[in-house]
Design goal:
Oligomer: single chain
CATH class of the largest domain: Alpha Beta
Bound molecules: phosphoric acid mono(formamide)ester
Helix content: 25-40%
Structural class: alpha/beta
Distance between the termini: 52 Å
Number of strands: 18
Length: 457
Amino acid sequence: MSAASARAGGEGKRDLVSIEDLSTEEILELFHHADQFRDNLHAWSDLCRGSIMATLFFEPSTRTRLSFESAMLRLGGGVITAADEKSTSRSKGESLADTVRVVGGSYADILVVRHPEDGAARVAARYARVPVINGGDGSHEHPTQTLCDLYTLYKEKGRLDGLEVVLCGDLRYSRTIHSFCYALARFRANIVTMPYPGFELPDYVLRRLRRDFGVKTAVASVADLPGLAGSSNAAAYLTASEPHQLSLFTQLTPVEVNRIDAIYMTRAQRERHSGEETKNYPRLSTKTLRAAAAKDARIMHPLPRVDEIDYDVDDDPRSVYFRQAELGVPIRMALMAYLLGRIELRSTPRAERATTPGIDARSLLRCRNERCITNGEGVRYLERDFRVRQAIGEPPSLECAYCERELVVRYLGHAQERWCVPVTVEVLRGMDPDQRVWLESEEQARAAGFQIRGGTD
Ligand code: CP
């Protein structure tokens, strides 16, 4: 099987669940193809002739669904869509797994899926025979929005390396922010977070930035940005740049941010809030743009906008949020043509992230993210699945294979001999994988009949 046909479906198919599924080189090459598509959007109607894309959108969307559909039509392929959950058999109780098995059977050659639960895209990718693209799963990730964002920044600034990017608003529930952070860290951009209080970047995202990209964190002192700066007293500076002078900064001498390349604004993701207050949410206005630090900044937003960017900012040449949406078509054309094997890239795909799959079936574990699909519709049919993650200098930890949230485990038990010890790299290495039982607490260990040796909870 050629690399191209392997990509198109079945064994070895490529999915895009996380932005981490694409290598840096692949992303840059996709930009190149997107440039070609964009030069003449009407010149590619033979490239995907005969292919059908299905959009399965179980949450509202304007840009993602319609730009994917436009992209496939411009490539000469066909489109089938389920844009309203109520009009599909999901309303009768059909699972996502069954839906994608059917639609990804003989109905379509590639699926784009949006779903309200974290980890849903991984479920779709596991069950579908054809490539699956994550169109947004809960507050987990939205990788193709990140492709639009990176592509826009790249065209505006001519580079991605070492940019200073301010992220503002609801950083907790915004899936576009989470994917964007991982990508920015990969390109060694510096991230300044200015969350609406209570909506900070989640710990699991920060931990992943630290573990996978060596990102370090300091307090940031952001030059006055009217409408934004006052919204948050918790600006942080995240950088993977080396060598960096972060060690010189302390709480008393924060990193001063006087030059900003982009301000990325997000709306309050109210559909994922549980009654949280968002009074005095930040609002970017023409006044914000008068700040010296914002002189060369690009104003970005994944859209839809609610009230967080004034409409008169639209006329400022630094505002690029409609460009982000526009570039969604050529970059999604490039992505689909690639995943369907209709264009070849020179670069090698990203290696599988270093994890140890397959935590044994005796596991007592449950993902603690209540919004994870394993605690939602997947309760009916998904086997819990955790991967072991190891960071230098830290004890091994587990991560849900679906929503990628970390699960804190304290003990590793021996299944046959019924003892357990605090988990360390050495204990993990020394225990037969078939005998490992992961335990979250002393209480759980005792309840399961394990004798605890060494350490306390
Ligand atoms: N940016 C984005 O995902 O927009 P839609 O929700 O309209 O698809």
